[in-house]
Amino acid sequence: MTPLLELRGIDKSFGPVQVLHDVGLSAYAGEVTALVGDNGAGKSTLVKCVGGIYPVDAGQLLFDGREVHVHSPRDAGELGIEIVYQDLALCDNLDIVQNMFLGRERKNGLLLDEDSMEELAERTLSELSVRTVKSIRQQVSSLSGGQRQTVAIAKAVLWNSKVVILDEPTAALGVAQTAQVLELVRRLADTGLAVVLISHNMNDVFAVSDRIAALYLGRMAAQVRTADVTHAQVVELITSGRSGDLGLKNGVTP
Amino acid sequence: MRAGPSQEDIRRHNLGALLRHVHLGGPISRAELTSRMGLNRSTIMALTSDLTAAGLVREELPRETGRAGRPSLVVRPESARVYVFAFDVGPDRLAAARVGLGGLILDRREAVRERGAFELAELTAVLAGFARQMRRKAAADAVCVGAAAAVSGGVRKDDGVVRFGPNLKAEEVPFGEELARRLGLGLPVSVGNDANLGALAEHSRGVGAAVRDLVYLHGDVGIGGGIISGGHLIGGHEGYGGEVGHMVVNPGGRACGCGSHGCLEAEVGERALLESAGRYGGHQGRDSVRAVVEAADRGDIVAQEALKRVGDWLGLGVANLVNIFNPEMVIFGGMLRDIYLGAAAQVRSRLALHAMAPQRERLRLRTSSLGDAATLVGAAELAFANVLSDPLEVLARAHA
């Protein structure tokens, strides 16, 4: 199976500090790939490289098997890569539909095509079995944390995206809302998207992921199938870069 | 030797098969039915017109096809006209629903059940009362074509007697017969184990639709299970199959309500979780389980340990089931949804350690998509079974 998104040999430095060393990562359609690692391991930097926010120093990005170049978030969006950042980037003073189409509004002549945007927003939310939102004309400021996360994810899915990258989607949520977001993440993959989930919470990772990629000090320690590893092994990979036969050898990716 | 099927048998089979497509798949065009059922167009037309005449389906022009040519008629289930009653008897709740053909829940009633002795008369009176209320609100020309109940216990498939139900304190209770008498609809009430019916529900309308091999685990006070293998529910010789909650995972472990020790239910059930969390004796029920998961999330170490312990045992149980049945999917329903999401690291670590590689490689673990309605939806499917196997006959009887 060809990965839908594949990174090879990514290097990235900020001035004298090299943050990513020869990092590889594969994400497959229909699967959730969890990207784990300690604070400062390079998870967010890696994602920003994929999203076209940071240029890479070296390495390749392959989309559906062919090499592509992403120089800006717009390039990423055109390929079908959507990233939901931790801060969600929603506008509090706008309603759900306005947020979902922000910057990419549909027009009917000179006017906004409110009807078709509303219909598409409604359909996207119902396809994701989102039942927690009462009205799609509700202002985002009135939503709970879980609902905001849901809207941000639905916004990413709306654009026929093929890869969705979620940065800590459950970080600030309570148990009930976390459960709903996890189920939503799982459904995204089950509808055929490639999902990359960044998380610190091992339960969240084990609950929904098919693969786990562990970063350690800017290097990819291991990419494993979730079905083949234990909690203890993943914690070891995160904290020391290796676990038994898995992981880095002498500090480098074997 | 029995002769081959008669023309009438074939017609009945085809009518049932067509109705099943519409019931489970929703509105569908005649053209689509033709290709899915592998019958020719005129046969499909004859079958749909029979079902239409009987008032089970109706045909409509599609709203828009976006294609040239005469559009194929869309066949829809008559959800408002043809319905069943579905009941659910759990340790903490009594529920009833009026469910239309096509699986639409038209109306629903629920009451809290106090944990205590199984009072057959009182309980069936409540459920029959719900049914009467819902029937009054139904359209005048609506027909009830079946009734079924999900019960948390072991049910004999022949006569709907609840043989054992430690969490309901039920033993040898003629539940189906009594509920049918109270309902007075002239219809028998089929009875099934709640987790078996939950499995059926997830298999026909939930996260496991299109999955032919699945294990559904239902957590309430105890742990129930339903196993679907090759598209069929494993009921066993007399209907008691799938009692995965009484699979022994820890011989010499905690005492179980069934009289044994170390059953999965004894190690994973509500009591085990609450006791390990030092909360037994206070509140019970689903909310008390959620409270432990929430406390663990907030950093309560005792609750975290309790959840880990329960997750460990659950993972061990699932590993055994995965080794034996090689399911494509394991579904966590009832309170096990909360337990799984809160202790997935333990559950999957156990799977990695104890399930064999070929069985676990492509296994998918999912939470129930029907949630609290799973058992009720399953009961409705059981109630629809007769009309789906012989649509015209059942309808004729209902009208008589």
UniProtKB/TrEMBL annotation, chain A:
CDD domains listed in its UniProt record: ABC_Carb_Monos_I
InterPro entries: AAA+_ATPase (IPR003593), ABC_carbohydrate_import_ATPase (IPR050107), ABC_transporter-like_ATP-bd (IPR003439), P-loop_NTPase (IPR027417)
UniProt keyword Cell division, yes or no: no
Keywords: ATP-binding, Nucleotide-binding
Gene3D superfamilies the record matches: P-loop containing nucleotide triphosphate hydrolases
Gene Ontology molecular function terms on file: ATP binding; ATP hydrolysis activity
Domain ABC transporter span(s) in chain numbering: 5-242
Pfam family, one: ABC_tran
Protein name, entry field: D-xylose transport system ATP-binding protein
Automatic annotation (TrEMBL), chain B:
Record flagged with keyword Kinase: yes
Gene3D superfamilies in alphabetical order: 3.30.420.40, Winged helix-like DNA-binding domain superfamily/Winged helix DNA-binding domain
GO MF annotation, one: kinase activity
Keywords from the named record: Kinase, Transferase
SUPFAM superfamilies given in the database record: Actin-like ATPase domain, Winged helix' DNA-binding domain
Database matches in Pfam families: ROK
Coiled-coil residue windows: none
Sequence similarity: Belongs to the ROK (NagC/XylR) family.
Protein name: Sugar kinase of the NBD/HSP70 family, may contain an N-terminal HTH domain
